[in-house]
Amino acid sequence: MLNIVKTVTQHLPSIPIAIKVSPQEVASGSLNWKNLELATRSLHRDGLVVLEDVIEHAKLDRLNEKMVKDAVILQSAGDASPFNYNKGNIQQDPPLTAEYFEPSIFLNAIATQVTSSMMGPRPRLTFVSGNTALPPTADCPPQSQPTHSDADFDHPSCPFAFVVNVPLVEMTPDNGSTEVWLGTHVFDHNYQEGKHGDRASGRVVESLLEQRREERPPSQPTVKKGSLVIRDLRLWHGGKPNFSNQIRVMLASIYFAPWYRNAMHIDYSEALKETINKYGCGLQIQAEFKPEEEIIKGYLNRPFGNAYDFNQQDRQENEP
């Protein structure tokens, strides 16, 4: 029977640190030293940090209008939809086309700065998708995801991947903000159950959740519109029901350490090649550029989240 070794966390907060980013920092695409230190320390201690007032609301609104319409299409697929654990929570890719691509959303310089601070220069960007919480229906009553980790495999014990979430609207407990278990990024995959790649893989063993709850309980924070949420891939979390009558879309990009051998790639429209090269210069972007009409036809035909492989290529059993 596994037991979580208690650390000195009894007095640590369950609500994530939120850093208010100044207009000057947004304009320069760079946090000042003090805020970069705070973000880095928060990620090491908690596994998550929120950066507020980073993205213009009008730019989010335009993409949100499109993705809400797309979410209705995906929801109508029923059992064939790319749902994550339950049908109220779906995997949803954004349209990576010239019409809807906004660099401050998809290639944010501050996100690159923070992830580079944690993992070294020029992280690998290999995944861009989204997570959508749907309002309840008669066929799909409110449900929570099980508490889980996206690192549902034997992974390194050091920081190797960060998810950069961009909510397109304010996220609250009412519309399904994600429940997070701060500090749990230090636990390995032996605290999980479910086979890697299964729809319900990565679930944290229930008895261990109760132990952790006594030490540092989870929270379901409100995240302001215009924020970036940077989360260690290993952190325990779970999608919660959307009790509102509005679809809630949250983008998710994964930045891997430059040394981490992940083979995934992102399909972009050929029309974006110059933009990607310009705004992604601080990253190694594993991109495939395809005709725009091919992107438009295929971006909604994607698998559910746990079908993706975030592991390394050719990982050896004796790697630490």
UniProtKB/TrEMBL annotation:
**Can you say what this protein is called?**
Phytanoyl-CoA dioxygenase family protein
Pfam families documented for this protein = PhyH (PF05721)
